[in-house]
């Protein structure tokens, strides 16, 4: 039985089975069959209609639109493997029942035993696998059939994957091997159990500066190394920032960018590469790009991570890319007034459309982010000291009040006892005076 499976976002793993002669609503509304928590989706965002063994996706007049395989649609027939994007949630239409196992699970591909499916993307599927010869766990990306028949793409894929295998840096996911087995083209890489930064911010979520800045420092360090090696990523985005078991961020798919085929900006022999939400203006124009394009994409990613939304909103890839070329985004300082000015300046400089105004090197981004992180941590420590001081003062006031109350109670008790027992009270007071006098005299004599 066909199904819809959420592949990314906060609701990853959520799925529903489809049946004939009914509609299946998708959105944030509580009545939806596929109920999502993504704040960028509408209440009744879209639906899938099942009639005469055909499955049709229909947009429900959503604010941000429904996208099928990267294109905005109002109505379109679904085919097995199609990917639906609503808000920031990626959903796959599967022809087989949800319980059906992936046919590659348990199989060997080029010396790798496939263990489990861990992700899907526009280029293909990513699996957790065991490299049999070395008995180590890796991630292996197997290209979709649509790319496996494109000789030009395969050649570029192999060439760049082999070049990336020579890159070694703590903030770049290591590529181990590239090959072909039984018609399946693949490359293996370092397994990253922490998922992606995109997973952490899905559904419109955002991160606090003290959590986000170290992540961006990691990415900027990886870009610094890539810059030194003459490698331009061309597709920096939260989805390509992965976390290891310790929370360190590493760049993946370095240099393996997909082609955007929609729109008239595809005006070079090689095409325009990048993701519409994060692409640099010069990259969008199809011009020759250098490492500064990656710095722009880093700034656009950082903007999304801290602000909870992308630089621009649009109904199509073309509209978004044109905005990157011609429009200025809402300043991050206006979007998030609580952010420190030094951090806002870093983001603004990364996003400068004029190349001469943008950071000339990712190493300088690292320096400025480290200073911003120090300021953020100092401000946090100052706030914590203030809170502790307030708690201490509050505690001191409570102790003082308790002492005063105790004194009142004691004095009242003494007064009552003196009235009821005057002779005994006089004797007690005389004894106290004598004790004080004796100890005072002995203290004086001892000096």
Mean pLDDT: 83
Sequence of strands across the biggest β-sheet: 2-1-11-10-7-8
Biggest sheet features: 6 strands, antiparallel
Cα-based radius of gyration, to the nearest Å: 32 Å
Cα separation of the termini:
99 Å
Number of strands: 21
Bulk shape: elongated
Q: In terms of per-residue confidence, which ranges show pLDDT below 50 for 5 or more consecutive residues?
A: 257-271
- Helicity level, as a percent range? 25-40%
**Continuous helix count:** 11
Give the percentage of residues in beta strands: 15-25%
Question: Helices and strands: which structural class?
Answer: alpha+beta
Word description of this protein:
This protein has helices spanning 145-148, 151-164, 197-201, 209-228, 281-284, 291-307, 317-326, 332-335, 341-350, 362-420, 422-445, and strands spanning 3-6, 15-17, 22-27, 34-35, 46-51, 54-59, 66-68, 71-73, 75-77, 83-86, 89-94, 108-109, 112-120, 124-131, 136-143, 175-181, 184-190, 241-243, 249-251, 259-260, 272-273. The protein has 447 residues and is α+β, with helices and mostly antiparallel strands. The protein has a 6-stranded antiparallel beta sheet, with no helix packed on it. The protein has a 6-stranded antiparallel beta sheet with strand order 12-13-14-15-17-16. Strand 5 and strand 6 form a beta hairpin. The longest helix is centred in the last third of the chain and has 59 residues, at 362-420. 33% of the residues are buried.
